[in-house]
Amino acid sequence: MPLDIAALNPPELVVLLVGLGGLIPVALYARDLPRWVIAAYGFLLFGAIATNVEHVLWYDAVNAVEHGVGNLGAGIAFALIAYRHGRRIRDTADDDASTEDL
Predict the structure, then answer these.
(1) Hey, how many other C-beta atoms are within 10 angstroms of the C-beta on 47?
(2) What's the pLDDT tens digit per position in 1-16?
(3) Helix axes 10-21, 35-53, angle to 10 degrees
(4) In which domain, by residue range, is 17 found?
(5) What φ, ψ does residue 95 adopt, rounded to 5°?
(6) What is the predicted pLDDT for the residue at 12?
(7) Can you say how many angstroms the Cα of residue 66 is from the centroid of all Cα atoms in its chain?
(8) What is the CA angle 69-73-74, rounded to 5?
(9) What pLDDT is stored for residue 20 in this prediction?
(10) 3-class secondary structure for the chain?
(11) Core-most of 17, 32, 77, 78, by most CB within 10 Å?
(12) Short-list 53, 25, 52, 50, CA closest to 37
């Protein structure tokens, strides 16, 4: 079956192109970024790819993988980023409070 380019949704294709373009700064700053930020970006990019693939191949299966892996994975990664950042802020505040007591 030949690829029917008309089956692709233009806004979803733009999201994929922006996501692929975003790989450049992620690759350039990968050493400076926390691994969970890179994982979250990877899950979002996976979801963008799957969104476009689902229009031409196994819609229901690819849609389930897109949401189950891409979106859920990104959500979990962002939740871990937020948790770790909040913990770091609390730890810094605790350290500042303990030095004020001296």
Answers:
(1) 22
(2) 556 667 778 888 899 9
(3) 150
(4) 9-100
(5) -65, -40
(6) 87
(7) 12
(8) 125
(9) 93
(10) CCCCHHHCCHHHHHHHHHHHHCHHHHHHCCCCCCHHHHHHHHHHHHHHHHHHHCCCCCHHHHHHHHHHHHHHHHHHHHHHHHHHHHHHHHHHHHHHHHHHCC
(11) 77
(12) 25
Per residue in 35-90, pLDDT (tens digit) is: 999 999 999 999 999 988 888 888 888 889 999 999 999 999 999 999 999 998 88
Query: 2 in a domain, yes or no?
Result: no
The terminus-to-terminus CA distance of the chain in angstroms comes to: 75
pLDDT exceeds 80 at position 97: no
Question: Is 4 within the bounds of a domain?
Answer: no
Q: How many domains does the chain have?
A: 1
Residue 85 to residues 52, 73, 74, 80, 82, Cα–Cα distance (Å):
33, 18, 16, 8, 5
